[in-house]
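We emphasize that the prediction below concerns an isolated chain of 345 residues; any contacts that depend on oligomerization or on bound cofactors are therefore not represented. The input was used exactly as deposited, without trimming of termini.
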Amino acid sequence: MAAFGGWEMPIAYAGGTLKEHRACRRDAVIFDVSHLGTIRVTGSSAFDRLQAILTNDLSRISPRHAQYTHLLADDGSVVDDIIVWWRGEEIFDVMPNASNTSSVLDALGGTDVTDERAVVAIQGPLARQRLERLLPEVTRVGHFEVAEVTWHDASIVVAGTGYTGEDGVEVALPRRSAEAFWDALIDAGLTPAGLGARDTLRLEAGLPLYGHDLGPGITPLQAGLSWVVGWSKPWFRGRDALVAEKASGPARRLRGLITQGRQPLRDGCDVYSNDRVVGVVTSGNFSPSLSKGIALALIEPGLKPGDSVMVRVREAFLPAEVTLTPFLSLPSKPEELSVSAGVAS
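Result of the prediction step, given as a token string:
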């Protein structure tokens, strides 16, 4: 366990991160992600309020669907990346990152209901098969669809979203029912996995992490996430700055890096080309699936997939190759992945 933002975070269970990672790629696992926030925005003005502040265009979807979006600062950089669960005509559950719940609440209004519920992510190629006996209705919830079902008299909300690149769902349920639900999932053959495995899984899938690959000074365009922007909307916070950046072209781009060895690349390591610094690693780790070091890095836009670079790790220089993400061939397209979504090419 580790403390973060007032939460005790489960980093790994008894089996360890590598075992948990492989279980998600081959079978199915469960993550306790109750630290994610939930802000409920309701009423006749809810749609217009979210549409006027967040980057993505809610008119692209309809009720009973989810959407990945950004809240920006005036300079166009990402205050938070968010999933919106459109539960009903006038009911939206907005899910920010744990550390940003209060700032998102200030921007959007609504009611913070984080303490009322728990959230469990069920991920892996066999996730739906494992859920068939326990919650057969959930197995029919498609990518970025939202449904409400009942489990043992508890009303639960299910979204076809996740953060691993694998198939699966995320379930929000009353906190009083969370422990029993968790135990039932284990009885159904699902493996508990900690946030250590969640990080290596999302990195292999090329999914950005707020505070590393997204955050102050990093715009959606730099992160390769222009599809998260509703360019036809007349206004949203940070729009003018993004329009200007789109016209001039971003000064850096988030790209994948891969090494031939097992040594991991780490956040903050400088990236060199022709003996000069051309960028910085924003996320890096060892890939259990590839047995190589992988990373996301903000680098000069002239560097393309296939180019060779050097990464300074302490006093050593490791050769790496620029590559597109995801690093693995995964079942979901980048724009269908969530909290968050993949790095477009």
